[in-house]
Design goal:
Blueprint lengths: L10 E6 L3 H11 L5 E7 L2 H10 L4 E5 L10 H11 L4 E6 L4 H8 L5 E4 L8 H9 L4 E2 L1 H12 L15 H11 L4 H8 L3 H15 L4 H8 L4
Parallel strand pairs: 1-2, 1-3, 3-4, 4-5, 5-6
Helix pairs in contact: 6-7, 7-9, 8-9
């Protein structure tokens, strides 16, 4: 479905999801963001591929799986879009919280990954802005699980001593992993540099790393 006429100079966004409420929610979040243009939406993989032939797209917000019989699985669809339209930044939105599925999706070097259970939809304008400038994004809940998985040498987290990061510690870690400095994070979150430094140190302590090099090594390969 084409949503409206395209505007010059704006980031063109297409939504691909077979749940009307998800499409509606995303549309409401993005429709008043002046830098973005909602170019269209699709409810199946076949309709998405058809839409991409007709409309320019900069960022694709794409579900991992569609219920329509005969639809491509998520990995196949992502690969197909990447091969046909390598310039498109793909942000995967999924209800699949399985760590194996998350790792498989991230192995395709998508621009972003958001679990629908993470409650991160309200941050979509920020996320789209980040991927537009070449940064990657993983929602804090998934990032925490992936970091634990990585720190446990990829053996899974079921027998690992659970590490619980506060929401703000997760936010600081996520923004730091995106390449932002402590000062930039403080400005973005409207908190003091001292507060951000403390939250970053607390997150590192909980993750069992003692310096920035170890922290970056622990999350290497997730972006």
């Amino acid at each position: 479905m084409r949503l409206k006429d395209l505007s010059q100079g704006k980031c063109q966004v297409i939504i691909a999801d077979d749940h009307p409420l998800i499409v509606f929610a995303i549309t409401k979040i993005l429709e008043n963001v002046k830098e973005l243009q909602l170019a269209g939406s699709a409810s199946s993989s076949s309709s998405l591929l058809q839409l991409l032939q007709e409309i320019s797209c900069d960022v694709l917000l794409c579900d991992y799986s569609f219920d329509e019989e005969g639809d491509s699985d998520g990995l196949q669809l992502i690969k197909q879009v990447q091969e046909l339209y390598p310039h498109i930044k793909i942000i995967v939105l999924t209800a699949h919280d399985d760590i194996v599925i998350a790792l498989r999706i991230l192995s395709l070097k998508v621009a972003g990954f958001i679990s629908k259970s993470s409650g991160e939809f309200s941050d979509l304008p920020f996320v789209i802005g980040q991927v537009q400038i070449g940064r990657s994004y993983i929602d804090p809940v998934t990032l925490n699980a992936l970091t634990l998985h990585q720190l446990n040498n990829g053996k899974g987290c079921e027998n690992f001593v659970e590490v619980v990061l506060s929401e703000r510690e997760q936010e600081v870690l996520r923004l730091f992993a995106l390449g932002m400095t402590v000062s930039e994070i403080a400005l973005h979150t409207q908190r003091s540099v001292k507060t951000i430094s403390t939250q970053k140190k607390n997150a590192m302590d909980k993750l069992g790393v003692s310096n920035v090099v170890e922290l970056l090594k622990a999350i290497k390969g997730l972006y």
